[in-house]
């Protein structure tokens, strides 16, 4: 593989992707901001009910509550509320990507092949660029949380009195820096896998089917209690305060395993994909 050609192709994918998706990124940031605002309001109401001081809530408290999700026990008992924030965050990755990746792959690859660019270079450039975009989307969410959280709550980078009262295990055993590293990693690896699944399915099938597949995966993640689910980043299921990091390491292991199989699938897609007479049903590449 010609490295200089591949790097130019990757640079082209990243620049073009960000240019085309900038409106969706803005919409996503507005949605993330609304989620943060809603969570802050609920936490303040809860703190007031518990007769806690006005500065009881910090940014980390908000971040944990946003990504906490629901436990396996709650699912088994059938008494739970949908993890709306987690659900919207997971779906937002494919919303931002839209059908651009599929449209660009189908429409532009024949021109690239005519310039002696390998189809494997084209596909793996899409893999890496979508992974980098997933990192950018995750960072966008964290920017929204820390920006609005610092405005409406205590800006201190530590657990607040609220967490001390409601979740003493996390308050006592999980250091703030380790918490940020773990949850960012979990969110990143699950989102990257979702994006890659979307990329492979969207390349072979219609875009609407890709969305259906992602929705099915996310729905199964919520309702089927499987500890080894590589798409599950709900914090309450990971027992982050455990010293042995068992659940966290499981997530890393299954990510690497799934990433390997997805890259093999990507290789197969690149090998078998036919561009002749292939029509694109996407209308939002521009």
UniProtKB/TrEMBL annotation:
Domain of life assignment: Bacteria
Coiled coil: none
The keyword Phosphoprotein belongs to this UniProt entry's keyword annotation: no
Keyword Nuclease among record annotations: no
Transmembrane segments: 21-43, 84-103, 124-157, 177-201, 208-227, 247-269
Name assigned to this protein: ABC-2 family transporter protein
Keywords annotated in UniProt: Membrane, Transmembrane, Transmembrane helix
